Amino acid sequence: MLDAQGLYDLARKWFALTPLAIFPVTFAIDAPFGRFAPSKDSIFLVDGIKSWIFMELISPAFFIYTFLHSPLSPPGASPSLALSHPPTFLSALFLLHYLNRALISPLRTPSRSKSHLLVPLSAIAFNSVNGSLLGTYLSSPAADAFLDGAFARPRFWAGVALWALGLVGNVVHDEILLNIRRKAKAKGKGKAHESNGGAKDDDDNNGKAKRNAQEHYAIPHGLLYRFISYPNYFCEWMEWLGFALAASPAPSCTSFAAFLATVSPPWLFVFSEFFLMFPRAWKGHKWYHSRFPDYPKERKAVIPFLL
User: Fold this and answer.
1) First CA to last CA distance, the chain
2) Model's pTM, two decimal places?
């Protein structure tokens, strides 16, 4: 039977492999939520806002449990809860992100398309493992050793600054999208086409006709929307890259075996976010072009000037 260290290492390795396996599949299959939500009613469709809140609260819940129980530490040991303790400081950043993601943002959302039950179930599985791994790592002796004296190191504060920049960017670009929905709802145009400015409803899936009574999509403008279709994704990657830089050493890339042996949960979070989110950004970018004839052709999908 595996002990805590063995279970942690096994989960860490599988969490590195699973996004790589899913990556090509998500280019072929649309995750059934948002603009790709199913067009027909089904018993498997769940409320978009309530399911989002529940599935996103899973990550901080598992994180708090494992951080406080510190399964890799000696029996009876527990982490300091003072913000002057670098692992606890980073834990506060993680929880601040999820306060916005799981509660503030969805509660401020005017409407959200229904999701297929598979979406929250998949998210619950991901968030359970991710939250557990991060909480276990940050409460571990390895994190304590790496973060000893972290407040005096430029790398730590550079990572925190990148995290903060990503969080602010994520929030302000989400706000642009929320304002589109608020204006549509205020004008009673959740289902109507809007001709001026090229704004239309999200009533298709990759150009196929589909009606959705709740949602309204238009071409977003402003800030990084000038360059990419998904700046909220790009900023979230910035967040967790900064978090990983601050929290743990980079993994070895001399071989795949060396990578699996040395990659820590903060870096796994960065890699999994990219592999799981990039296909949706790419397909959503294509959807914008097919849906709006006047969509800016110079915009990239999710990385400015590149992709």
Assistant:
1) 45
2) 0.84
